[in-house]
Amino acid sequence: MERSLTHIALMAAVVSVLALMPQIALTSGIPITATSLGIMLCGTVLGARNGFLAVVLYLLLGLAGLPIFAGGASGYVPFTKPGAGFLIGYPIAAFVIGWLVERTTLPVGFAAGAASAIGGIAVLYAIGLPVMAWTLDISLSRAAFLCAAYLPGDVIKVVLAGLITASLAKARPGVLMSRA
Amino acid sequence: MLTLTSPVKTPFHRLPAGLKMALMMGFGIAVMWAQSPGPLLVAAAVVIMLYLFCGPAVMRLALRALLSLWPFLGMLLIWGWWDGRMAQATLVSLRLGVMVAAANLVTMTTPLSEMLVVFETLARPFSRFIPPRRLALAFALVIRFVPEMGTTLQRLRDAWRARSRRRPGWRIVVPVLLSALDNADHTAEALRARGGVDGIGNADAKKPQPLPAEKA
Question: N or C: which end of chain B has fewer CB within 10 A?
Answer without folding.
Answer: C
